[in-house]
Amino acid sequence: MTPLGRLIAARIAAQGPISLADYMADCLLHPDHGYYTTRPALGAAGDFTTAPEISQMFGELLGLALAQAWLDQGSPAPFTLAELGPGRGTLMADLWRATRGAPGFHAAARVVLVEASGRMRAAQAQRLAEAAPVWVDAVDDLPRDRPLFLIANEFLDALPIRQFVRHPQGWAERQVGLQGDRLAWGLAPPARIAALDHRLADTAAGEVVEICPAAPVILAAVAARIAARGGAAILVDYGGWHSRGDTLQALRGHAYADPLAEPGLADLTAHVDFEPLARAAAPCPVTGLTTQRALLLRLGLAARAERLARGLTGTALDSHRAAAHRLVDPDAMGTLFKAIALHAPGTPAPPGFDASAHDA
Length: 360
Ligand code: SAH
Fold this sequence. Notes:
The protein has one domain (37-160, 212-343): Rossmann fold (3-Layer(aba) Sandwich). It is 35% helix and 22% strand. It contains 13 helices and 16 strands. A hairpin with a 2-residue loop joins strand 6 and strand 7 (170-179). Residues 28, 36, 42, 50, 52-53, 85-87, 91, 114-117, 120, 153-155, 158 line the site of S-adenosyl-L-homocysteine.
């Protein structure tokens, strides 16, 4: 067992089984042994890769969409340019380079990064020196006194979830307990969970549903700032409109792993449910849910890919073309990943998003 596994097992032995959310929080962000606090995590040498690490076009196109929303709102200055969970800083670096030509955007932007891991902050500091970022621990610490233009990719999927199994008498929460000296799944006694009343109609006994308690709180904090001062937010993640089944996954070395086997050594994520996010974003208008594929193609991925291809030959050209496909192919990230945007009341939706219709 890993050192973190021993700590968790001792806690369970003393105090009883813990929720999956508590387990995930320890695995990802434990100050000494958490995955994001200790591991390189991202990129070819890490455990998983993400759209900005695959191609510079991802950050460029989303950055230009956000800059257009800023122009559409009258180029307010100063404004907060924020990212949630920036990883290695690649998305923000590409966004920053691509928006150089938007008149006044760089001069007005105050870059604020929401990042819990000191290790990740160090990587971001190196990468983003030109944008002079400051860091905050949580979304609630984002400035309240200026417009907020915000982006997040694969942040919400790292937030701890709870899982419940539908039971004739209500919902039994999945817990992490002990079998001998090993971590093992268990179930709490069934109870009524008011937040899941609306799922009684579309689930049957034995089915698993998930809730992510932190996500709506985060969305509400972002939306409150945007509604009060102006701004927009673009959120990209893998998932769908409604939670369906057990979506917890552990990744280590680009391969699936057992989520209980090596606490702290594997990345743990879950599908993001966009419906509760959209509900929490009131009073801001929220666009329809769109696939990453449709969004990037509407933002001009094909033309940008051709432009970049002109300067490349040989294996560099091949890997550029493969990266473009990976972002939009239905067999790769194209349809598994989804996006929504919220924007200040009375302002247009950022480009690339349909104001209301879902296309995913
Ligand atoms: N957006 C990046 C990285 C995704 S990995 C990309 O697309 O490549 C998730 C990121 O969120 C990491 O930087 C991780 O340290 C950070 N993170 C995870 N949970 C967090 C939390 N609760 N608060 C703040 N940052 C968090």
